[in-house]
C-alpha cells in the first residue's frame, strides 16, 4: 500500500487507515467496512454519529459510495484518512496512481468556497509556508484510460453529496502544490538539489578591448556543479588556450591579454553549462563583442553658402562605433552651439536650421562623437557658413524686432519638413522600449510643432516632448500605443502635417515563467512555460540541455504544448528542464528543475519560546516548519483538548495561530504539531498575559506664583512582573532633572518656580510591553498678588480626554460603552461625542456616532450589521473639545443583507453610443456584509424587452452600443454575501446625444421689399435635447458678398423676421439646430430675386444703422447691421423705403463677419464680435467685444463689479476643446494668443467668485493665415515723405485753380447727376452694405467700372498711377521717382464714378 499524509489531529488524537475499495464488494452490493476513528474520547462509528449529528450523511453510506466510485481504479491502492475533530469534515485526501480525475462543473461549484477560503486565510504568511502554498494547481487528465472513466464519473457525480465533491477536489488541488526549500543553511546543505544559474553576463556583452574579458556564469546546487562552455554552438576547450581560464568554484571565464593577443579573435556566441548528478542548467546565449571607436575619415569641407532665411542641414555622419557614439555639436573653440526652436540637433546627429540668419556666420560648427568604452571624443572638421543677405549689416537691435524677418528683408514662407521627408512614414518599435518620433520643419517665421494621435489622446503618463517639441518620446511602449501619430508644423503663413504610422512588435515576454518544482515521492506536478510576443513566439522544451525529443522516454512525464505534466514522480525523475521561447525579435531561456524529496517534518523556530502579551491585545504565535510532503500543522493548548481553530482563534495556512483578543484564561502552553507520512515534529510556545500599564492619578494643570513649589502627581498601576519606568517630558522634549527638581516614583516636584518652568509636562509610564502617558500645563504668574478666589483666578481650559474605554453587554446590534471622564479644567463638561472607525471601507477615518450629556459616562450604542467597530470619546465644555480618547477594543457585528440601495442613481451618455450609469456608493454602516456589490439592471423604456443586468463592484458602469438619445429604465440594487437589498426604485436615464438633423420645412418669404420672413419646423431627429438654432445669413449681389450675420435662437423659436438694409440685395440663409454635442446638419435657402435685379443703374441711398432685436420667443425681427458700407452701383426701379431704427430689449447674440470676394484672388476674412446691451442695475457683465486675428483675439467687456474683482474668459473651439484664462479686473483688453486660423470659437466672460454671473455666449471666427509678404509701408519714412510731397503739390494746384477761377476763367461744368456724391468718410456707418474688405480697398482716386467692380490696378501699390505711363519706378532704397501728373484720359473716362470727389479737379467743383 502507498503512504499518504493525513490532515488530521496528532498527539492525543489517533489516526486510522481506510481499507482499499474492492470492486467485488461493489458488484455484490456490499462495501468494505467503514473506517474507525480513534480519539481520546473513544471510537467514532456510524452508530456513534447518528446520535449526535443527524444532518451528516451516515458513515456507511458515504464510505460505500466512495469505495464503489473508486472501485474501477483499485489496480492501485487507495488510502483515506478521515479525522473528525469537529462536526464538519476537516479534510479528505484521495490519491490514486493511475491518473488524476478531471473536475466537473459540479465539483467547481461545490468546492470554490472551500478552496477559496483556504487561500484567503493566508493573511500574514511566513516566507517559508507562503512559498510552499503559492501553487495550487489541477493537472489536466492525460494518458491511457482517461476516456473510459467518463461513465464512472457521471455515476459518482449523481450519487455523491456536494461536500464529498468539494473534499475530493481539494485533495486534487493539493497534488499540484510545490515545496520551497527554506533558506536555513543546515537544511540547504543536507538536501540534494539540481543546479540553478544564479549569475550570468548580459545577452549582448560588449567589452573594452583594453581590459581582460570576463564572461560571468555562477550556479548553485548540491553537490556543487561543474562547468563547461560552448562557443558558436561547439565545445570550447579551455585547456588548449593559455589565455583562457575559469574562476575557482565558478564558471566565470577570464581571457587575459597581458601577454598579447587580439580581443577580436574571441568574438562569438558563448553559453555556459552547470552540471551535477541531478541535471544540467544552461545560461543564456551570450554574444561577445569588442567595443570599436573608429577614427573620423579625413575630409576637406568647403564653406557652406546659403541665402538668409533658407533652411540648412549640416550632416554629421559619425563613424559606426560599438556601441553607437553620443553626438553633440560645438565650435572649433569648444564652445557649445546654442540650440533653440530654430536651430537644433536631430536624433540622427545632424544639425538643422529651420531658417538661416546672418548671425549664424559668427561661429563655425563641428560635430563631436563621444565613445563610451574608450572615453574619447573625436571631432569632425568644422563647417563654415557664408550667409547671403539683402541686409548686410548685422544690426543687433533687429534681433528683438517684433518682425525680425521683414525688418531684414527675408521673405516669409510656409513650413516644409526637413525630416522626415514627404507627408507620411512608418516606424516599428518593440514592446517595452521607448518610441521616439521626430519632426523638424523649415519656414519663415520658425514653425511651431504640435503632436497628435489619430482617434485618441497622447498617453499623458508616458509621453513627453523633447528638442523644443520637435520630438515625441513615449516610454515603455505597449500594444495600445500603436496607431497613427501626426505632427503639425505651423506658422502665420500656414501649416503642414506629417503622419507616422507606428507598429508595435514584441520580443517574447513571460506570462508564466517555469518555476522550480520540488515534490515528494508519488506526488504529481507540472511545469508551465507561457510567453507572448508579436509575432507569437515558438516554445521548445529541453531537459539537461538536450532537446526533449532526443531525451530518454519517461512514462511519468507528458508534454502538452507549453506544459509538462508529471505523475507519480520518483527519485529518478530529478532533472533540469529548459524552456526556450523565441521569435524574430529575440528569445527567452528559463531553467526549472524537478527535485523529489522525502523529508520528515522539521521545526525551524527555537524551541519553548516565551511570548508575553498585554491583556485585551491581539497576538500571533508563529510555528515555521518544513517537510516533504508538506506537513499538516495543528495547535493544542496545555497538551489537551481539540485542535484550536474558530471563535477567538484563527489558524492561517502557514501554521500561525492568531488570538484575536487576549484574556487571562488564554495564558498557558501552546503546542504546534506538524505531521506528514514520514513522521511528525512539535514545538511549544508559552504565553503569559500581563496587565496593562495605566496612570490612575494624572497630573493636573496648575497656576503657580514665581518662587513657590509645585508638585505634579503621576500614580501608575502596572503588572508587578514587569519593570516600570516613569519619565517626564517638558514641551514634548525629555526633561532635564536639575537641582531645583526632584523626581519620585509617583510625582515630580519643582522648587522655586521660575518663568522658564512654564509649559506642558508629560508623565510617561512604560514597561517593556506597553506604556501610558498623561499631560498637564504649568502656568507661572509674575506678580505676587494672591487672588481672592482661587478657582476664579485659575484659567479655564478644554477638558482632558476620557480614558479607560470598556465595551460590555455585547449584543447583535448594540453594545454598551463605558468611560472614565477626564479633568474638566475648571469648566464643567457639557457633552460627550462618541465616534467610531471601521477598518473595511475607510480605515483610519473617524465618524460621529452619537452625542450624550456631560452627566453620563456610559451609553448603549446602536450598531449596524457587519462593521468592525472601534470607538473613542471626546469631551466638550464651554472652552472647547478635548483630545480624543484612546480607541477602545474592536467589536464586529454579524452580517445581514443590505436594507437600502445606493442613492443618486443617474444614467447619462458620455458618447453618442453609450450610457454611463453612476451612483453614490454605500458606506460601511450600510454595507451590512462582506463583498458589497451592486446589481445594475437596465432596459429601454416603453419596451417589453427583458432586463439586462451586470454585477459591479465600483460606482459606475458604461452600457455600450446604445441608440442615440433613447430613454432607459435603470435599477441599481445592493448585494453582499448575506443576500440582496430591497427592490430598487426605477430611474429614467438617457443614452448619449448626437448632432441633430437639419430643421424641416425651412421657408423664406418676402412679403415686401423691406422684410423677409423665415419659418421652419423642428428637426425630424433631434438626437438629444435641443439647445437652440443657429442662423447665418449674408447679403449678396452678383459676385459681391456682404457681412455675415449670426443669430442664435432658443429651442422653441421657429420664426424670424429680417429687416432688409437695402431693397436690391438678396440674402442667403443657413439654418442648423444645436444640441449639447454641437450644431447639426444645416439647410440653406436664398431669398427670392427682386424683379429689378438684372437692371442696375445706380447705387442705393445710404440707410441709417438699425438695432438688432427680438420681439418674442417664437417670432423675432432683426435688421441686418452693416458698417463701413461701400457704394454699390445698383439702383432699384422703385424708390427705396426708409427703414426706421428699431430698439427692442433682446438676449439674442449677433455676430457680424465682413467678407469680400473677388474673382482675382482668395477671400480675406476679418471677424469682429460685439454685443450691445444696456447696463443693468444688478451685478452683471455686458458689451463683450471680440477683435480677432488669425491666431489671437482681443477681448473687452463692461461690468459693474467693485474694484479688485477677478474674471474668467472661457472659450471653446469647434473641436469642443474648452480653455479658460483668469483675468484681473483692470487687465483689459485680454489677448487670447493660442488660437488657430480659420476656426470658430464660442466665448463668455464670468465672475471668478460667482460663475453664475456670466455674459451672454458669443461666437467668433479667426481669419485664415494670410500669405501677403508685403511689409506695412504706412510706417516707412520714404512713404511718409512722398505723401507730404503729393499733398504739397495738390495744395499748390488748388491755389492756382482758385486764383484762375477768381479771375473769371472758364472751366468745364460738371453735368448734373441723379446720384449724389458718396460720403466724404467711407468708414461712416451709413446703413448700406460694405462690399469690400478694409485691407483691399483702393486708394482714393482709383476708379470703378459701371458694374460696380474695382478696375484692375496697374500696380499692387497703386502709386504707379501718379507717374507718367510706365516710367514710374522706385530707387533701390525704396523712394519714389517720377513726376506727379494727373492722367487726363483716365479722368475723362472715369470722372463720373463715385470716387471723383477725391480728385483735385473735382475738389474745385465742390468748392464752387
Automatic annotation (TrEMBL):
Which regions are flagged for Pro residues bias? 1088-1104
Does the entry feature the keyword Aminoacyl-tRNA synthetase, yes or no?
no
State its location(s). Membrane
Q: Which residues cross the membrane?
A: 1278-1299
The UniProt keywords, alphabetically, are:
Cell adhesion, Disulfide bond, Immunoglobulin domain, Membrane, Repeat, Transmembrane, Transmembrane helix
Per the record, where are the segments of Polar residues compositional bias? Answer: 1339-1352
The organism is Equus przewalskii (Przewalski's horse)
What name appears for this protein in its UniProt entry? Answer: Neurofascin isoform X12
Give the main location: membrane
The protein's gene is named NFASC
What InterPro entries does the entry give?
Answer: FN3_dom, FN3_sf, Ig-like_dom, Ig-like_dom_sf, Ig-like_fold, Ig_I-set, Ig_sub, Ig_sub2
UniProt lists the family membership as follows: Belongs to the immunoglobulin superfamily. L1/neurofascin/NgCAM family.
Ranges of Low complexity composition bias in the record: 1-21, 1151-1169
Amino acid at each position: 500500500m502507498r503512504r499518504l499524509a493525513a490532515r488530521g489531529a496528532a498527539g492525543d488524537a489517533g489516526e486510522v487507515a481506510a481499507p482499499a475499495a474492492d470492486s467485488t464488494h461493489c458488484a455484490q452490493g456490499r462495501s468494505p467496512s467503514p473506517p474507525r476513528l480513534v480519539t481520546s474520547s473513544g471510537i467514532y462509528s456510524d452508530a456513534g454519529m447518528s446520535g449526535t449529528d443527524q444532518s451528516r450523511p451516515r458513515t456507511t453510506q458515504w464510505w460505500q459510495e466512495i469505495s464503489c466510485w473508486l472501485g474501477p481504479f483499485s489496480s492501485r491502492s487507495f488510502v483515506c484518512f478521515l479525522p473528525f475533530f469537529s462536526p464538519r469534515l476537516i479534510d479528505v485526501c484521495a490519491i490514486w496512481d493511475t491518473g488524476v480525475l478531471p473536475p466537473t462543473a459540479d465539483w467547481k461549484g461545490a468546492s470554490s468556497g472551500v478552496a477559496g477560503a483556504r487561500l484567503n486565510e493566508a493573511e500574514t504568511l511566513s516566507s517559508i509556508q507562503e512559498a510552499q502554498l503559492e501553487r495550487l494547481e489541477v493537472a489536466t487528465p492525460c494518458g491511457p484510460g482517461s476516456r473510459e472513466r467518463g461513465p464512472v464519473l457521471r455515476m459518482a457525480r449523481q450519487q455523491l453529496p456536494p461536500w464529498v465533491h468539494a473534499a475530493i477536489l481539494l485533495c486534487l488541488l493539493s497534488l499540484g502544490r510545490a515545496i520551497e526549500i527554506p533558506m536555513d543553511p543546515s537544511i540547504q546543505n543536507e538536501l540534494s538539489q539540481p543546479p540553478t544559474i544564479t549569475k550570468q553576463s548580459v545577452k549582448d556583452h560588449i567589452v573594452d578591448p583594453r581590459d581582460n574579458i570576463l564572461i560571468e556564469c555562477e550556479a548553485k546546487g548540491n553537490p556543487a556543479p561543474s562547468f563547461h562552455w560552448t562557443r558558436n554552438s561547439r565545445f570550447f576547450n579551455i585547456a588548449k588556450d593559455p589565455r583562457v581560464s575559469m574562476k575557482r568554484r565558478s564558471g566565470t571565464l577570464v581571457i587575459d591579454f597581458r601577454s598579447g593577443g587580439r580581443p577580436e579573435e574571441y568574438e562569438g556566441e558563448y553559453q555556459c553549462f552547470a552540471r551535477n548528478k541531478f541535471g544540467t542548467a544552461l545560461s543564456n546565449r551570450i554574444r561577445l563583442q569588442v567595443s570599436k571607436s573608429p577614427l573620423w575619415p579625413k575630409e576637406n569641407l568647403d564653406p557652406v553658402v546659403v541665402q538668409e532665411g533658407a533652411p540648412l542641414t549640416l550632416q554629421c555622419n559619425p563613424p559606426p562605433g560599438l556601441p553607437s557614439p553620443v553626438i553633440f555639436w560645438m565650435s572649433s573653440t569648444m564652445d557649445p552651439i546654442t540650440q533653440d526652436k530654430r536651430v537644433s540637433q536631430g536624433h540622427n546627429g545632424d544639425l538643422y536650421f529651420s531658417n538661416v540668419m546672418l548671425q549664424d556666420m559668427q561661429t563655425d560648427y563641428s560635430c563631436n562623437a563621444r565613445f563610451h568604452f574608450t572615453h574619447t571624443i573625436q571631432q569632425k572638421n568644422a563647417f563654415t557658413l557664408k550667409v547671403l543677405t539683402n541686409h548686410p549689416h548685422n544690426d543687433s537691435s533687429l534681433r528683438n524686432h517684433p518682425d525680425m524677418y521683414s525688418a531684414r528683408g527675408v521673405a516669409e514662407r510656409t513650413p516644409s519638413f526637413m525630416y522626415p521627408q514627404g507627408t507620411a512614414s512608418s516606424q516599428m518599435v518593440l514592446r517595452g522600449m521607448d518610441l521616439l518620433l521626430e519632426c523638424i520643419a523649415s519656414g519663415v517665421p520658425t514653425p511651431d510643432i504640435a503632436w497628435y494621435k489619430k482617434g485618441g489622446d497622447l498617453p499623458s503618463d508616458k509621453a513627453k516632448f523633447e528638442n523644443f517639441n520637435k520630438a515625441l518620446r513615449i516610454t515603455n511602449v505597449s500594444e495600445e500605443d500603436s496607431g497613427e501619430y501626426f505632427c503639425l508644423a505651423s506658422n502665420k503663413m500656414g501649416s503642414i502635417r506629417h503622419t507616422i504610422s507606428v507598429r508595435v512588435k514584441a520580443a517574447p515576454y513571460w506570462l508564466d515563467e517555469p518555476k522550480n518544482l520540488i515534490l515528494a515521492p508519488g506526488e504529481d506536478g507540472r511545469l508551465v512555460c507561457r510567453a507572448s510576443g508579436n509575432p507569437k513566439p515558438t516554445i521548445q522544451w529541453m531537459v539537461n540541455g538536450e532537446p526533449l525529443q532526443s531525451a530518454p522516454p519517461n512514462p511519468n512525464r507528458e508534454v502538452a504544448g507549453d506544459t509538462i505534466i508529471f505523475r507519480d514522480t520518483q527519485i529518478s525523475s530529478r532533472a533540469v528542464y529548459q524552456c526556450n521561447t523565441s521569435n524574430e525579435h529575440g528569445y527567452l531561456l528559463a531553467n526549472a528543475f524537478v527535485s523529489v524529496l522525502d523529508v520528515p517534518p522539521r521545526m525551524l523556530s527555537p524551541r519553548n519560546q516565551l511570548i508575553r502579551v498585554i491583556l485585551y491585545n491581539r497576538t500571533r504565535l508563529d510555528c515555521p516548519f518544513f517537510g516533504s510532503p508538506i506537513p499538516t500543522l495543528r495547535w493544542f493548548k496545555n497538551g489537551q483538548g481539540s485542535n484550536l481553530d474558530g471563535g477567538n482563534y484563527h489558524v492561517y495556512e502557514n501554521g500561525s495561530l492568531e488570538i484575536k483578543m487576549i484574556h487571562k484564561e488564554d495564558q498557558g502552553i501552546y503546542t504546534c504539531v506538524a505531521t506528514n507520512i514520514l513522521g511528525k515534529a512539535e514545538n511549544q510556545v508559552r504565553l503569559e498575559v500581563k496587565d496593562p500599564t495605566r496612570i490612575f492619578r494624572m497630573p493636573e494643570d496648575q497656576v503657580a506664583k514665581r518662587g513657590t513649589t509645585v508638585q505634579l502627581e503621576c500614580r501608575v498601576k502596572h503588572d508587578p512582573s514587569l519593570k516600570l519606568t516613569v519619565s517626564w517630558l517638558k514641551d514634548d522634549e525629555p526633561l532635564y532633572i536639575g537641582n531645583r527638581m526632584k523626581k519620585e516614583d509617583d510625582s515630580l516636584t519643582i522648587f522655586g518656580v521660575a518663568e522658564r518652568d512654564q509649559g506642558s509636562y508629560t508623565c510617561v509610564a512604560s514597561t517593556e510591553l506597553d506604556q501610558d502617558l498623561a499631560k498637564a500645563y504649568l502656568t507661572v504668574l509674575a506678580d505676587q498678588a494672591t487672588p481672592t478666589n482661587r478657582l476664579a483666578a485659575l484659567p479655564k481650559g478644554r477638558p482632558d480626554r476620557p480614558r479607560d474605554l470598556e465595551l460590555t453587554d455585547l449584543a447583535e446590534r448594540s453594545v454598551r460603552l463605558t468611560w472614565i471622564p477626564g479633568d474638566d479644567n475648571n469648566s464643567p463638561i457639557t457633552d460627550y461625542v462618541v465616534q467610531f472607525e471601521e477598518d473595511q471601507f475607510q480605515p483610519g477615518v473617524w465618524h460621529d456616532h452619537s452625542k450624550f450629556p456631560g452627566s453620563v459616562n456610559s451609553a448603549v450604542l446602536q450598531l449596524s450589521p457587519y462593521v468592525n467597530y472601534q470607538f473613542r470619546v471626546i469631551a466638550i465644555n464651554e472652552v472647547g473639545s478635548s483630545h480624543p480618547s484612546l480607541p477602545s477594543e474592536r467589536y464586529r457585528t454579524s452580517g445581514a443583507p443590505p436594507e437600502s440601495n445606493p442613492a443618486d442613481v443617474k444614467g447619462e451618455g458620455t458618447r453618442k453610443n453609450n450610457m454611463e450609469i453612476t451612483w453614490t456608493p454605500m458606506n460601511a454602516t450600510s454595507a451590512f456584509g462582506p463583498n458589497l456589490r451592486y446589481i445594475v439592471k437596465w432596459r429601454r423604456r416603453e419596451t417589453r424587452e427583458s432586463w439586462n443586468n451586470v454585477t459591479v463592484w465600483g460606482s459606475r458602469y458604461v452600457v455600450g452600443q446604445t441608440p442615440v438619445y433613447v430613454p432607459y429604465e435603470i435599477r441599481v440594487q445592493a448585494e453582499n454575501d448575506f443576500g440582496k437589498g430591497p427592490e430598487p426604485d426605477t430611474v429614467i436615464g438617457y443614452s448619449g446625444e448626437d448632432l441633430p438633423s437639419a430643421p424641416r420645412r425651412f421657408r423664406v418669404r418676402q412679403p415686401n421689399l423691406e422684410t423677409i420672413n423665415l419659418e421652419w419646423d423642428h428637426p425630424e431627429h433631434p438626437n438629444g435635447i435641443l439647445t437652440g438654432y443657429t442662423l447665418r445669413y449674408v447679403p449678396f449681389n452678383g459676385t459681391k458678398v456682404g457681412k455675415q450675420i449670426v443669430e442664435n435662437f432658443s429651442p422653441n423659436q421657429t420664426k424670424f423676421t429680417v429687416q432688409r438694409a437695402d431693397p436690391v440685395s438678396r440674402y442667403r440663409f443657413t439654418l442648423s439646430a444645436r444640441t449639447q454635442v454641437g450644431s447639426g446638419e444645416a439647410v440653406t435657402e436664398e431669398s427670392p430675386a427682386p424683379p429689378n435685379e438684372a437692371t442696375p443703374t445706380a447705387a442705393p441711398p445710404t440707410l441709417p444703422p438699425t438695432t438688432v432685436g427680438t420681439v418674442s420667443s417664437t417670432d423675432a425681427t432683426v435688421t441686418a447691421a452693416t458698417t463701413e458700407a461701400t457704394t454699390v452701383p445698383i439702383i432699384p426701379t422703385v424708390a427705396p423705403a426708409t427703414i426706421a431704427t428699431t430698439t427692442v430689449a433682446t438676449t439674442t447674440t449677433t455676430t457680424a463677419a465682413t467678407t469680400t470676394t473677388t474673382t482675382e484672388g482668395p477671400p480675406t476674412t476679418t471677424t469682429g464680435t460685439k454685443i450691445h446691451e444696456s447696463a443693468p442695475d444688478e451685478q452683471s457683465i455686458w458689451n463683450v467685444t471680440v477683435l480677432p486675428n488669425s491666431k489671437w483675439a482681443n477681448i473687452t467687456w463692461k461690468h459693474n463689479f467693485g474694484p479688485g474683482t477677478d474674471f474668467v474668459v472661457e472659450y471653446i473651439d469647434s473641436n469642443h476643446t474648452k480653455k479658460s484664462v483668469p483675468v484681473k479686473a483692470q487687465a483689459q483688453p485680454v489677448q487670447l494668443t493660442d488660437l488657430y486660423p480659420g476656426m470658430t470659437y464660442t466665448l463668455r466672460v464670468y465672475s471668478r467668485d460667482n460663475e453664475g454671473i456670466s455674459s451672454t455666449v458669443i461666437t467668433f471666427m479667426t481669419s485664415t493665415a494670410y500669405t501677403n509678404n508685403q511689409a506695412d509701408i504706412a510706417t516707412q519714412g520714404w512713404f511718409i515723405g512722398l505723401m507730404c510731397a503729393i499733398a504739397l503739390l495738390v495744395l499748390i494746384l488748388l491755389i492756382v485753380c482758385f486764383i484762375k477761377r477768381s479771375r473769371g476763367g472758364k472751366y468745364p461744368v460738371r453735368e448734373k447727376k441723379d446720384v449724389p456724391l458718396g460720403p466724404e468718410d467711407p468708414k461712416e456707418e451709413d446703413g448700406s452694405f460694405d462690399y469690400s474688405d478694409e485691407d483691399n480697398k483702393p486708394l482714393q482716386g482709383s476708379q470703378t467700372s459701371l458694374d460696380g467692380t474695382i478696375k484692375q490696378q496697374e500696380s499692387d501699390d497703386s502709386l504707379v498711377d501718379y507717374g507718367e505711363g510706365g516710367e514710374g519706378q522706385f530707387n533701390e532704397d525704396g523712394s519714389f521717382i517720377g513726376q506727379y501728373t494727373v492722367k487726363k484720359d483716365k479722368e475723362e473716362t472715369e470722372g463720373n464714378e463715385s470716387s471723383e470727389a477725391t480728385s483735385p479737379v473735382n475738389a474745385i467743383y465742390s468748392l464752387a
